[in-house]
Request: fold
Amino acid sequence: MKARCLTWAFPGAVCAAVIAVATLAPTRAAAQGGVSLAPHRAVYDLSLAAARGGSGVGAVAGRIAYELTGSACEGYTQVMRFVTRMTNQSGGVVLSDMRSNTWEAGDAKRFRFDSTQLQDERLAEATAGDASRRSVTEDAKVDLTKPAKKSVTIAPRTYFPMEHAVALIAAAKEGKTSFRANFYDGSAKGEKVYDTRAAIGKEQPPTDRKLADAKGADRLKAVRGWPVSIAFFEPNGDRGDALPVYELAYVMLENGVSKNLYIDYGGFALKGDLREITFLPPSKCDRK
Reply:
């Protein structure tokens, strides 16, 4: 099953979700699943994994820089920069630079997001907002400030990015092979909720010789993980022939680090190789 390609270049805020989902944090599932996350800074090198007929993509080179800090008591902050240089089959080049900063409360009752997308050093898209709810079983109100001031209502039991990621880890630890949830990350001008469907593979042992070249990755060799594939669908996409907007596959490690990224936009796909990781000091809450 392959996704439709949204645009020739990257689809703005959707890029933020790629690492937000693949690099984790807190929530309703955390207490039940015993999920413990490691604050860290990671760098991934991007390259073209596949280019299918009609995509027009000839080559891609890029990098993702990602940082996770915080804790369940003070909330989690994610900062990401996603830069690509894409060459089409005629030799034309597009430079895409997506920057994202989010904060999510440990109880998943509040989620703030701010992202900008530059193409060839010109602003192409900007989205910012603040979502809040009294509980995860009630509607969330989103107050958008970019691209325009507007209020949006999100249905109950919709997962924010960090919340979704921890629930996914908890599901894997429980031996589940699938996980489906509505997902909101501020994409599509802050107005879209995705229907996500995850497949969880067999647990991998805590060894990985492929990380030998990744600086600072020695600690990961003792951490178990699971191969995961997540398809992001438009809302109400239950038709049998519905195709996802995009798909994300990666190895999800128990401590919240991701490796072996594979991002499929339909017309083309990228792979992301972990090149460097730095584990950061625990939050003040965790040191108490």
Q: What stands out?
A: The chain has one domain: 14-109+116-124+156-287. The radius of gyration is 18 Å. Confidence is low (pLDDT under 50) at residues 1-18, 23-32. The longest helix spans residues 161-173.
